[in-house]
Amino acid sequence: MFGIGLPELAVIAFVGVLVFGPDKLPELAKQLGQFIRKAKQFADSARDEIRGELGPEFADLELRDLDPRAYIRKQIQEALAEEEAERPRAAAKPAPVLTLRPGEHPPYDPDAT
């Protein structure tokens, strides 16, 4: 849960009791739960509205799909998968090996060096 373990949670609860008192703490926990529930409903309604605006081809859209890093990662994975699918065909035809005869010098291009 957000990288918070039992000891950290106990410290947070102890500080909460000290700051707010044991009488107000249950009411604050209830308000926090309501806030989290409303935030989730807001995010769900925003996602549904975006899906409705974009049309049926984006019916499986998730908000995390709009993250640029996730989009780029997805494109790279697709490109690697396509390359992997094409690799067996390219490996079947080996490149020709050119050998030099004794005393022959390799080609030299003065413009390339």
Explained architecture:
The chain is mainly α. The protein has one domain (7-86). 65% of the residues lie in helices and 0% in strands. It has two helices and no strands. The two termini are 59 Å apart. The model has no long low-confidence stretch (mean pLDDT 82).
Topology:
Blueprint: H1 6-54, H2 68-92
Brief descriptors of the model:
2 helices, 65% helix, 113 residues, mainly alpha
Query: What structural class should be given to the helix and strand makeup?
Result: mainly alpha
Spans of at least 5 consecutive residues whose pLDDT stays below 50 are none
Q: What is the average per-residue confidence, as pLDDT, rounded to a whole number?
A: 82
The strand count comes to 0
- CA-based gyration radius: 31 Å
User: What is the number of helices?
Assistant: 2
Strand count, sense and closure of the main sheet? none
Q: Helix fraction?
A: 55-70%
Euclidean distance between termini CA atoms: 59 Å
In short:
The chain has 113 residues and is mostly helical. The protein is 65% helix and 0% strand.
